[in-house]
């Protein structure tokens, strides 16, 4: 089922993405250990650059609360919900939220408009025809507007802008980094290091041979996984065929891997993939876009898909992040206006969900000032 047609490209105007900025303030990174410090020696790499070893030694501080005051059934949360429900104000909020990301990108030399234009004027549409499963039924929650796009993730514009938005997210997570590469060495490096350390500690001699990246979007996290574990067979699965088309298009033009990434149009709650067929299931920056019932189903599906000794790795916003707990009212209101299930995510006890699915060795650590990485293991026989 196609929710957006190629004809929309004809009307695309890069000037629609303006240089208008919204003033905002990020609290500086506070260096303090929560559960354990991550001393990372990570060979930072991406599909477009060669690996280089950099010593990264950072730890991050939690706030005093279990979750921000602007989530759940607090007076502040109810006020924000009421503001978002007011349609004229909601339209302004959507625009403002979008401009925060674009402003961050442009201030840090991320060519948002140029990257978007390049995708929309390419032959990426051929990839959609190859990847899209027309029989796939979309969950009701997935048809909601996300990230200031009325069609949510089922549109070419959302897909074309996704990588620039991801880069902007990384720069906002590490505002004092001198470059995107340096920010990635912390955000992506700590995430990958947490995965590697957990698997080595709890899975013995079981090598990571098969990896599934659920909710892979346009494949940024998938490519980092493929670079980190070059001998593994890596698959990226997503509900948006537009995102997957962009992922496939970019991968074909930037990489000659010995093990090409396989892109799968599917539902992470019920993938229809064989049981016990993966050693690592990664879920990166997806759960904050899901209702609690979907989070539960995806975790159960990950348990089914993993071999004994396999590792699940979830990275996403941390409810305990001091940075997120101290966001200014403008920023957290804008963020909630484009994330319809953010409250459900923050109220979900993710560690309990993972344990109830059957995982053991559940560990969670802040891997950057805003994000946590949870790792856990399927029990060995």
UniProtKB/TrEMBL annotation:
Gene3D superfamilies found in the cross-reference section: Vaccinia Virus protein VP39
Any one Gene Ontology molecular-function term assigned to this protein's record: methyltransferase activity
UniProt cross-references to SUPFAM superfamilies, sorted A to Z: S-adenosyl-L-methionine-dependent methyltransferases
Annotated InterPro entries: Methyltransf_25 (IPR041698), Methyltransf_Superfamily (IPR050508), SAM-dependent_MTases_sf (IPR029063)
Pfam families, sorted: Methyltransf_25
Coiled coil, from the record: none
Domain Methyltransferase: 211-310
Record-given protein name: Methyltransferase domain-containing protein
């Amino acid at each position: 089922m196609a929710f957006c047609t190629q004809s929309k490209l004809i009307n695309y105007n890069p000037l629609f993405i303006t240089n208008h900025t919204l003033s905002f303030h990020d609290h500086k990174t506070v260096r303090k250990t929560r559960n354990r410090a991550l001393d990372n020696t990570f060979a930072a790499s991406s599909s477009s650059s060669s690996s280089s070893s950099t010593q990264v030694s950072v730890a991050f501080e939690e706030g005093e609360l279990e979750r921000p005051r602007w989530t759940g059934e607090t007076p502040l949360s109810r006020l924000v919900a009421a503001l978002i429900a007011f349609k004229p104000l909601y339209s302004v909020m959507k625009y403002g939220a979008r401009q925060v990301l674009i402003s961050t990108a442009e201030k840090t030399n991320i060519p948002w408009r140029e990257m978007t234009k390049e995708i929309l004027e390419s032959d990426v549409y051929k990839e959609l025809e190859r990847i899209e499963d027309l029989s796939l039924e979309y969950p009701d929650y997935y048809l909601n507007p996300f990230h200031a796009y009325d069609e949510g993730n089922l549109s070419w514009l959302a897909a074309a802008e996704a990588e620039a938005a991801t880069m902007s997210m990384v720069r906002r997570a590490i505002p004092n980094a001198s470059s995107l590469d340096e920010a990635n060495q912390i955000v992506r490096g700590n995430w990958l290091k947490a995965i590697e350390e957990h698997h080595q500690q709890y899975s013995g001699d079981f090598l990571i041979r098969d990896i599934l990246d659920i909710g892979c979007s346009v494949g940024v996290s998938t490519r980092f996984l493929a670079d980190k574990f070059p001998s593994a067979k890596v698959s990226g699965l997503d509900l948006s065929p537009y995102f997957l088309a962009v992922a496939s298009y970019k991968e074909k033009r930037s990489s000659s891997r010995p093990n090409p990434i396989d892109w799968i149009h599917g539902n992470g709650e019920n993938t229809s993939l064989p049981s016990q067929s993966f050693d690592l299931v990664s879920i990166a920056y997806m759960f904050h876009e899901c209702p609690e019932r979907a989070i539960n189903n995806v975790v159960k599906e990950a348990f089914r898909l993993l071999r004994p000794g396999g590792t699940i790795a979830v990275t996403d916003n941390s409810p305990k992040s001091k940075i997120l707990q101290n966001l200014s009212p403008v920023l957290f209101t804008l963020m909630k206006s484009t994330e319809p299930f953010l409250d459900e995510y923050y109220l979900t006890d993710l560690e309990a969900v993972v344990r109830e699915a059957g995982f053991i060795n559940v560990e969670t650590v802040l891997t950057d000032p805003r994000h946590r990485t949870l790792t856990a293991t399927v029990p060995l026989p």
